[in-house]
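Task: sequence design from structure.
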């Protein structure tokens, strides 16, 4: 009988340790202490050059929050060159105030931009006008 009580006690203690470990109580982790994603990745899919908008920027429309996850990384997985250009300046219109523009990205190259102002930013690929996306930047982050 004593063996069963000892085994039951050990099982109960083990269960409590597992519970406290996963609930964060052992290490004092609170939700505010857990790591957060500081960047958002947008992928240019293989075949985007063929004219299918669903292969263009994925995801095409994103929301980010200032001082939380307001850095966006675009990665070209396609076999042709693409860029990421603030839409009002995609074709070098006179008087355009460009917010961001990447160089032409080869396969597996990336472009990173950190947004620092609230707003809606439309962008496109200059050589492929059907490739479009939007970044909505919201307030709410803490320094």
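Answer:
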């Amino acid at each position: 009988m004593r063996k069963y009580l000892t085994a039951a006690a050990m099982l109960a203690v083990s269960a409590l340790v597992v519970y406290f470990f996963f609930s964060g109580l052992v290490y004092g982790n609170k939700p505010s202490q857990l790591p957060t994603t500081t960047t958002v990745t947008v992928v240019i899919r293989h075949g985007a050059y063929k004219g299918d908008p669903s292969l263009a920027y994925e995801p095409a429309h994103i929301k980010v929050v200032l001082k939380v996850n307001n850095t966006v990384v675009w990665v070209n997985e396609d076999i042709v060159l693409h860029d990421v250009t603030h839409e009002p300046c995609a074709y070098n219109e006179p008087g355009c105030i460009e917010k961001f523009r990447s160089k032409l990205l080869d396969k597996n190259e990336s472009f990173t931009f950190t947004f620092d102002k609230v707003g809606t930013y439309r962008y496109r690929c200059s050589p492929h006008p059907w490739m479009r996306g939007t970044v909505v930047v919201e307030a709410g982050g803490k320094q």
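The domain at 39-138 is CATH 2.60.40.420 (Immunoglobulin-like).
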